[in-house]
Amino acid sequence: MKPPLSKHSIVFFQEKLLEWFKESGRSFPWRKKGLTQYQYIVAETLLQRTKAETIAKFYPQFIKDFPSWKALANTNLEKLETYLKPVGLYKQRSKRLVSLAQEMVKRKGRLPKERSELESIPFMGQYIANAVELIIFNQPSPLVDVNMSRVLERFFGPRKMADIRYDTYLQQLSYKIANHEQSKEINWAILDFAALVCRPKPLCFMCPVNRRCKNFISLSL
């Protein structure tokens, strides 16, 4: 059983990552204010298992060509697969986007606030549901993927379960980290940090939290 997480360590991590993000964070079209719910959700769906820089080049034109749930729902699946080939995973993405769009058309674009109903929407899943809560409903939810998981586990300690969706320790930790008045920025900071510094092969000499990082300390011993 892991020892309880120190509130001091969590606050230290949040503050240092926000400081880093202010100076070194990335800028993407889906992080701008004033986007529609559709535009936010499409971005998060495209981002899954793909580098943000790849989607950033592709996303603006996608939104022009498919400006609404209705436009996406009425798209021929094979044509959409061809359209999505440049960003990979095109068959999975096409099916996910069209099914999601068709459901949202049925719902007249309205997103339920009840978590169980939100996750019942086809291909919504835990990650997109968290993104909806965070970005659309302004709730402190974590964008937990393999990248965020890597950063949190290195600093605070590893999870036990292979699937991050069901690991109680990682899920509880991520919610504690996201529980901040700048929850969006905390999430973006961790994702950017994972891409630029805390990579699979980390650049520990550039890390602002290395003196308290469990992984860095263990490597230094």
From TrEMBL:
Domain annotation HhH-GPD: ranges: 46-196
One of the GO BP terms on file: mismatch repair
Sorted UniProt keywords: DNA damage, DNA repair, Glycosidase, Hydrolase, Iron, Iron-sulfur, Metal-binding
GO molecular function, one term: metal ion binding
CDD domains noted in UniProt: ENDO3c
Cofactor: [4Fe-4S] cluster
InterPro entries named in the record: DNA_glycosylase (IPR011257), HhH-GPD_domain (IPR003265), HhH_base_excis_C (IPR023170), MIG/MutY (IPR044298)
Annotated function: Adenine glycosylase active on G-A mispairs. MutY also corrects error-prone DNA synthesis past GO lesions which are due to the oxidatively damaged form of guanine: 7,8-dihydro-8-oxoguanine (8-oxo-dGTP).
Family, as annotated: Belongs to the Nth/MutY family.
PANTHER family the UniProt entry points to: ADENINE DNA GLYCOSYLASE
Designated name of the protein: HhH-GPD domain-containing protein
Highest classification ranks of the organism: Bacteria, Pseudomonadati, Bacteroidota, Chitinophagia, Chitinophagales
